[in-house]
Structure formats: C-alpha cells, structure tokens
C-alpha cells in the first residue's frame, strides 16, 4: 500500500472526533492510520490533513464527516497563513454569522469585553455565570460568589439553544449528502 493512491483532503486543524474513530486510529485494525501517520510526519501543517485523510480513506468512517468549522474568521484575499484579527468593527457580522467560535483576536482587544458582556453575560474579572451561581446579581456583587451544592448542574441558556439549532442544521445538511470528503482538487472544480 503506497500513499500515492490516497486522496488527501485538508481542512481545519480543529476537529471533533468520535471515540470509535479514535480507537481505529490508535488500534488500527488495518494499517491505514499508521501508514498515513508515517507520511504526515514529514508534512508541514499535518494537523490540517492527518485525521481528514484517515477518515476519508477508511470505508467504515468515510461518510461520517460533517464539513463545518463552527468558527467565524475573516481572511485576506488571497488568504495568508493566519486569518485577520477580529475587532469591534466586525462584532455584528460575527454575531450574525451564528458561529459558535471565532478567531483570531489581539490580546486585550475591546471586542473581547463586548463578547463577555453581551453574549456570555460575564462581568469584568468574573466567571461566566451558570446555574450553580446562587448569589444576587448586581453591579457590585458577583452572582457566582455563592454556589449551590451541585456545581455540575447544567441549565442551558439562549446561546446553548442557538448552538443546538446550528448543530442540528449542520446534521440535517450532512444527512442529505453521501460523501462529505472533498479534496482540494475537487473543491477547485466546483
């Protein structure tokens, strides 16, 4: 088996992987994960291709991919190695995108405070309040200064509902396709 016979899709270095797929990569009941690992050892930015190539070349996992980054980014034209830094001027676009994550930000940029205040409802130098926070909310009292007995209690807020809807839409779109594995060559042809 030679690596020349494999298509090599590339994508985001941030991936969510299933347990069964990771077990396949670790235990490799066929030699594919190991073969591709040896190849990707010598590839620049291998994190943008290794898992993508394994999953798209393994018949039992090929149709389990969902092509969505869940991140809001703005790129130069033509794209450079890193996306542009996000700031207050793109805050509305970022929120309207519905993306669960965004990158990249300058350290201490005011847009981070806007995200904390408007989206996460987090006070300055405080934790993001959750259902475990029992303290009274005011500008001088941290609602998380008093905790309930169970800090693991989870009560989804409006942003969790938006994320649920977004992921649900992705999965609906995914179920209508038979193959989400797209190589760079195929992407150019579309």
TrEMBL record:
The keyword DNA-binding does not apply. GO terms for cellular component: membrane. This is Uncharacterized protein. GO terms for molecular function: glucuronosyltransferase activity. Its main location: membrane. Pfam families: Branch. It is a single-pass type II membrane protein. Keywords: Glycoprotein, Glycosyltransferase, Membrane, Transferase. The keyword Flavoprotein does not apply. It is found in: Membrane. The lineage of its organism: Eukaryota, Viridiplantae, Streptophyta, Embryophyta, Tracheophyta.
């Amino acid at each position: 088996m030679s690596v020349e016979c494999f298509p090599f899709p590339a994508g985001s270095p941030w991936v969510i992987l299933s347990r069964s797929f990771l077990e396949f990569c670790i235990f490799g009941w066929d030699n594919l994960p190991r073969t591709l690992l040896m190849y990707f050892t010598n590839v620049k930015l291998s994190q943008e291709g290794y898992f993508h190539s394994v999953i798209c070349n393994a018949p039992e996992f090929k149709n389990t991919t969902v092509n969505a980054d869940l991140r809001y980014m703005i790129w130069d034209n033509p794209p450079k190695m890193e996306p542009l830094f996000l700031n207050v001027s793109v805050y509305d676009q970022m929120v309207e995108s519905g993306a669960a994550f965004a990158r990249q930000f300058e350290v201490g940029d005011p847009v981070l405070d806007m995200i904390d205040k408007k989206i996460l409802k987090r006070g300055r130098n405080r934790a993001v309040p959750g259902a475990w926070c029992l303290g009274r909310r005011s500008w001088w009292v941290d609602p998380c200064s008093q905790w309930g007995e169970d800090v693991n209690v989870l009560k989804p807020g409006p942003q969790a509902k938006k994320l649920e809807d977004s992921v649900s839409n992705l999965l609906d779109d995914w179920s209508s396709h038979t193959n989400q594995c797209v190589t760079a060559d195929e992407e150019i042809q579309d």
